Amino acid sequence: MRRRDVMTGGLAAGLAVPGLALAKPKHAVAGDVAPEFSIATVNNGVHRLADMLGDVVVINYWASWCAPCRAEMLALDQYMREKAGKGLRIYAVNIESSPPEKAMRDLSAALSFPVGRRLAGKGYGKIDNAVPTNFVIDRKCVVRHAKAGAFSYDSFSRLLNPLLAEPRPVEVA
Fold it and tell me: 54, 63, 59, 53: which is closest to 76 by C-alpha?
């Protein structure tokens, strides 16, 4: 098969499915206004984005069987402890259908941020069916990061330090 035939076939296939290449992702992407959500935590709390305006928010999707998730959780916890009182909120949302309840409660007690059972709201979830997946929302409620893959402490710091340095928006009365 000649190269021209392969290229022509690929072009024809792309045209046969209009909009395929331009399809909007099912999840929020960087630059989007953050969709509203609520997170139910293992301690029976409910946290809503509407109540977090002016804070930097991290939603971390993870699973108990995921080794990179567990390593990332330690980095997130260290960062959160260092930035306490700076307007940062982190939520670890487990993606398993039946996560071990006792282990979830024990983890929640050990961490400096809440562990969620589920997140209700469109625009969030695993990206490319992968964990960990992280969404970062700035103080103005704009998604600044939406990607699959684990953060290290350093990469988390590089992303969040500038966002935490931004002033809180002034409320209009």
Answer: 59
